[in-house]
Amino acid sequence: MSYALIHQIGMPLLIFTGITAAALIARKLALRGLHRWALRTTSTMNDAVVAAVRAPSIYWSVAIGPCLLAEAYKTSQTLMEEGDAKAFRIYGQAYRQDVEFFEFMRTMEVYKKALDKETTLVLSPDSDFLKYLK
Which residues constitute the domain of residue 12? Predict the structure, then answer.
């Protein structure tokens, strides 16, 4: 599995799990407070209020989690797009400042990715791929 795929799936899943756990903890604390309040009173209506709040709150906790997850994913995508745009602007500025140096650096990156100890290339001596190694 690639790092990008793990990052795309893992981070939102981690965020979802954290948000859902926090919501369930908050629910438990709120229900505990309501239950203590109901115990201090003599009315049976308070017990009905606690029971009425208890059942749907778990549904709300589970329903809010995916909404927050979707918002977190949207925000992460927006931030990645902004980062990519900024990187492209910087590359464009670098290219305009010194075209030959930029081409040299990009070629070095290609060499680094394409060539290793096990690589065997058969190229003509005047190949553009090897122009900086001559």
Answer: 3-97
Q: Which residue has the tokens 């949207």?
A: 74
The Cα–Cα gap between 109 and 123 comes to 19
The answer to whether residues 112 and 92 belong to one domain is no
Say whether both 61 and 120 belong to one domain: no
Instruction: Count Cα neighbours of 88 within 13 Å in the Cβ-side half-sphere.
Output: 6
Q: How far apart (Å, rounded) are the C-alpha atoms in residues 107 and 22?
A: 49
Q: Does 86 share its domain with 107?
A: no
Are 71 and 126 part of one and the same domain? no
Report the chain's mean pLDDT, rounded to a whole number: 77
**Alpha carbon of residue 112 to chain centroid:** 28
Span 93-97, average pLDDT: 83
Q: Cα(50)–Cα(45) distance, rounded to whole angstroms? A: 9
| 89-102 mean pLDDT | 84
Distance CA 9, CA 33 (A): 36
